[in-house]
Amino acid sequence: MVTSLSVNLRDIPPEGMHVACAIGVGDLQLAEKDPRIKDVLTLTADVHANDADWQVEGELHGLLVHECVRCLEAFDMPVAISFRALYRDLEQRGAQGREIGHGEGESNLEAVDYYPTVMHRIEFHDVLREHIILSAPMQPICSESCQGLCQMCGQNLNAKACECEEVKAKLPFAILQDVLKPSRNSLAS
Ligand SMILES: [Zn+2]
Ligand SMILES: [Zn+2]
Asked: Which pLDDT tens digit goes with each residue over 24-54?
């Protein structure tokens, strides 16, 4: 069993290898706009050597911190990600740079990503970072009933109501009355 995010290919026995690892906030170099790891995520994975590549099947569990698009407050969301990835030794094949494609020839139609091995090691970082980013909702909201921010004064309406709504509700009626009054007067005279 391995407890790190990096596995030396030489250490993978024919029967495969189990990986269990805690991933901290700084381990994956997530960007500012990406979800943040709350405390630690737990990774469990199995690594198997095939004829020409290495297969990783794993799960990621824990809490991610998102920012609500309505009220802009940070909130925690549980995450449970299952992933599968294939690694290839692109250095040995003389290929340059990083190349991720979708695998073919699998028995099922599930898309599989190819990742390059780095210095004869399997690195989990890229796979995990990509799956965390993909797991994030396009429009994260802290709760279906989130009231958001007041567009006039910026008050977080989940915390307390502001007085803008009252003013806004009164406004059109007050204007209408002002418009109608003189015309009604002119009609009467
Ligand atoms: Zn919210
Ligand atoms: Zn307001």
From this structure: 988 998 998 899 999 999 999 999 999 889 9
CA–CA distance, 169 with 57 (Å, rounded to integer): 56
Note the ligand closest to the C-alpha atom of 151: 2
**Beta strands across the sheet bearing 17-23:** 17-23, 36-49, 54-67, 74-88, 113-116
Q: In this predicted model, what pLDDT tens digit does every residue of 85-131 receive, in sequence order?
A: 999 987 665 444 444 444 444 444 455 568 999 999 999 999 999 99
Question: Which residues, chain by chain, have CB under 5 Å from ion ligand 1?
Answer: 68, 70-71, 142, 146
pTM recorded for the entire structure: 0.73
Which of the ligands is closest to the CA of residue 148? 1
Residue 160 CA, ligand 2 centroid: distance in Å: 10
